[in-house]
Sequence to fold (226 residues):
Amino acid sequence: DAGITQSPRHKVTETGTPVTLRCHQTENHRYMYWYRQDPGHGLRLIHYSYGVKDTDKGEVSDGYSVSRSKTEDFLLTLESATSSQTSVYFCAIREGGFYNEQFFGPGTRLTVL
Amino acid sequence: AQSVTQLGSHVSVSEGALVLLRCNYSSSVPPYLFWYVQYPNQGLQLLLKYTSAATLVKGINGFEAEFKKSETSFHLSKPSAHLSDAAVYFCAVSEKRDDKIIFGKGTRLHILP
Fold:
């Protein structure tokens, strides 16, 4: 068990409102990732972090921002939610092992009305 | 650039039959390859990984995968399907110098009783 929690697990919000999703890890790993999962698209990387205050964009970063002020927390913010951001969001951590494997949290289901 | 193609978005097999899920990858350097499984309403769980130590990789729950460089393939198999194997399976590729993993779009495995 990689010790990853996500909050909230479910959220319904309205178009135009800001939303923040939290990923928390208990293992002090350097790398953390945010993905979204949509039917027909698999998992797509939104942003990732390689250390406190060090982040980089993934393939679908438009409309999202992230922050990492502590090793254990990685926040994903939708500045102004749109219906196209309705999705399941997964956080992952990389344990620093040699082979790049990632371990995933339970996910957050976000619905934007 | 790395990429992963999973053949068949849905695969159905009878209980007790062979499971074969196909994955082809593209990578400019020797890759790391992974299979993940996602059970309903859960995050992704690592099934197995290829790291160049052996071409036949054994994973959890009786699954194994064979790396074939000449075919750029990493197919997942299990000799005898169980009802509990019904899930979505993701193939993924990474490279040693890269912080990221590229996921395929997933194959949903249905087990027929």
